[in-house]
Structures are given as C-alpha cells and as structure tokens.
C-alpha cells in the first residue's frame, strides 16, 4: 500500500504532494540502504593509450532496491547530497573500492568519485587514509575524481585538502571537465594529476566540441596532466581520440561497467581495441 503512489501517478497527473511523498519514501529507503547492504560497486575499465593496456577501473555506485529495482546513481545521488547521506555512502564506497582493488592483478588503480560534499566534510583525508590502510592498498593505486562543484568556494581549504591528498600519494582527477562552470584557470590553480574530458566533447557532435577537446587536452598536457577521453563508444571516436593529446580512454567501446566478480575474466580476455 505504501507505494501505491507509483501506480496512481500513471492515472492522474502527479501533483506536488505525490512528488513530495515519493521523494520522502526514497529518502527513507536511502537511509536504510547501507545497513541493508543494497549498494554495490561496478567497475568500468580505462585504458592507457600508449600501451592499450587496462590500467585501472572507475568504481560506479549501484543501488539494488528490492522494489524499485536498479536505481541509477543520477536518480539518488543528488538526494543523498541534499540530505548529507552521501558522506556515509561515500565512506562505504571508498572502503569497498580499496578492498576490492587490492585483490586485482597488477598495479591497476581504482578511481573513486568523491562528491563535493564529502570534500567539504573535513573528514575526507582521514577517511581516505583509513580505507587505504585497511585494504593495505598503496596510495598510488587510488585516484579520486572530483567535480568542479568541490572547487567553487573555500579555495584555500580545498587546495590544502588536495595537497594533503597528493602528499599522501593519492592521484586527483578533475571529472567531467567542460560541463559546468569549469574554467581553464582551475587547471592552473588546483594540483590535478588528470583531467577527464566529458563525453559530450568526445562524441564529436560539432566542430566546436572538437576544438574544446583539443584546447583542453593541449593545455592539460602542457601543465603535465594526464588526459582521459570519456564516453568513447565507437571505433571512429577512438581513432579520432588517438589523434588528440589524450593519454587515456574510457567508454563502452573498451568496456562497460561490470560487477567486481567479472574483472578477473575481463582482464584475461584478448585486447578490446
Ligand atoms: P561519471 O563519474 O561521469 O561516470 C561516468 C558515467 O558514464 C557512468 O554512469 C558510466 O556508466 C557512463 N558511461 C561510461 N562510458 C560510457 C559511454 O561510452 N557512453 C555512455 N553513454 N555512458 C558511459 P553511471 O554509472 O550511471 O554514473 C553516473 C554518475 O553518477 C557518475 O558520472 C558520477 O557523477 C555519479 N556517481 C557514480 N558513482 C558514484 C559514487 O560512488 N559517488 C559519487 N559521489 N558519485 C557517483
Ligand atoms: Ca567519474
Ligand atoms: Ca565523468
Ligand atoms: Ca558525467
């Protein structure tokens, strides 16, 4: 009876009360999800373009809800950011990703998405240290992906945290570069190891997006940063990316996100490209 609202909304226009009710239900469920072990991490490979080797995986959060099914991250992460739950969820993600990465063959890195809110929570450095120690994972094998939202205010404290993480030996990537308010000055101001160029610029939909990709890759390279092209889906896109100053590639072409148990098999398969 509790979720009758879902069926009802197909018959009637969902009113404000329905939407609020649905949101409240989702929030209640989200608060319980950690304890009920409904979260899982999937991993998407990324390749080094010089060697065509899979050198790491990005951890992507999945919520398996018994009634809602698989809830995509973009459907619940904004809510978890609004109510602060993302900090606890993010700690679980860091812990789990480090533990799982420690079982992978080779020196592969694990990239973990860090919400701006975690960044501002003051506990990030301690959380990262604890996750690495518990998994006995060398810091160089952890990469933190941050978005420009983390950089908007408190510049000094953000730079301090970034520097402390880098001193620890963790790598820092600027995620989704080019999508929000990111400005080229960020690349000079903040000590990133890598820029991930959003897939909207990789798809090659327009001459403009190609020009932006080229400019960002050029500037990042001259600042000594690695450059990942995100969302590469076709062989044509990959061929084009190889002509740019990108160092890494990630996308459906080279591998979809997969369950942790699939990684061993995936790595013994012949080269995807
Ligand atoms: P993101 O960090 O930009 O992650 C890449 C997203 O693009 C993933 O979606 C991935 O499945 C998708 N993707 C990868 N390759 C391709 C491709 O070739 N084509 C297309 N169309 N899509 C591709 P996903 O897993 O749904 O995650 C969405 C977003 O949710 C992520 O975007 C990230 O912002 C957020 N997210 C995921 N996991 C976490 C997490 O643990 N913590 C936080 N704070 N955010 C997370
Ligand atoms: Ca990411
Ligand atoms: Ca991204
Ligand atoms: Ca994105």
From TrEMBL:
<protein>
    <submittedName>
        <fullName>Diguanylate cyclase (GGDEF) domain-containing protein</fullName>
    </submittedName>
</protein>
<feature type="domain" description="EAL">
    <location>
        <begin position="23"/>
        <end position="271"/>
    </location>
</feature>
């Amino acid at each position: 009876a509790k979720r009758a609202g879902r069926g009802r909304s197909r018959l009637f226009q969902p009113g404000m009360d329905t939407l609020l009710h649905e949101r409240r239900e989702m929030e209640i469920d989200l608060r319980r999800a950690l304890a009920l072990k409904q979260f899982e991490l999937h991993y998407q490979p990324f390749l080094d373009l010089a060697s065509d080797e899979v050198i790491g995986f990005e951890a992507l959060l999945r919520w398996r809800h018994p009634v809602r099914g698989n809830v995509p991250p973009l459907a619940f992460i904004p809510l978890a950011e609004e109510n602060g739950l993302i900090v606890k969820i993010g700690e679980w993600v860091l812990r789990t990703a480090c533990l799982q990465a420690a079982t992978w063959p080779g020196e592969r890195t694990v990239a973990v998405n860090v919400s701006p809110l975690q960044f501002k929570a003051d506990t990030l450095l301690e959380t990262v240290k604890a996750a690495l120690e518990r998994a006995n994972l060398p810091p160089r094998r952890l990469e933190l992906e941050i978005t420009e939202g983390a950089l908007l205010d408190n510049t000094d404290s953000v730079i301090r945290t970034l520097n402390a993480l880098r001193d620890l030996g963790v790598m820092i990537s600027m995620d989704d570069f080019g999508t929000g308010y990111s400005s080229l000055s960020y690349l000079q101001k903040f000590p990133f190891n890598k820029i991930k160029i959003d897939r909207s610029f990789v798809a090659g939909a327009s001459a403009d997006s190609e020009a932006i990709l080229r400019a960002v890759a050029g500037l990042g390279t001259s600042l000594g940063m690695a450059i990942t092209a995100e969302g590469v889906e076709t062989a044509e896109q990959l061929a084009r990316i190889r002509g740019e100053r990108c160092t890494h590639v990630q996308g459906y072409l080279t591998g979809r996100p997969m369950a942790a148990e699939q990684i061993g098999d995936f790595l013994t398969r012949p080269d995807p490209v």
